[in-house]
Amino acid sequence: MGQEGSNEPKTQNCFRCGKELPPGNLTYVAQIRIFAEFDGILREPEGGVDRQLDQLLKQVERSNPEDLEKEVFQEFNFALCKSCRDRLVDEFEHPWEGPFRVPGGMDRFTH
Ligand SMILES: [Zn+2]
After folding, report:
1. Ligand 1 center to residue 81 CA distance, Å?
2. pLDDT recorded at residue 2
3. pTM of full prediction above 0.70
């Protein structure tokens, strides 16, 4: 009745080829998590640990907390069509056969 159809399913596009993924069709979601791992090894820095710590704290103060968080943990969800999913899997399994190519480059993540 007079309402806007906000309950219409949202159409997704394939992350790689841009093809429309109509609702009700089989799509694939690639979830990538990138996080920092500390190996527990502290290297003896030049100028002593105190100075190193001081510099680190200053660096943290200057940094945008959001950026800092991104550096530690980032998660991406990509919707993919079947053929792109197959290609992506192939690239992860055989990364030496060519660079990981994303249409438009990775720039789309730097807002
Ligand atoms: Zn695709």
Report:
1. 4
2. 47
3. no
Q: How many A from CA of 19 to the centre of ligand 1?
A: 6
- Tell me, in angstroms, the distance from the centre of ligand 1 to residue 82's CA: 7
List, in order, residues 6 or more apart from 13 with CB less than 8 Å away.
19, 20, 21, 79
28-46: pLDDT as tens digits: 998 989 888 878 777 766 6
**Per-residue pLDDT for 80 more than 90?**
yes
Beta bridge mates, 78: 30
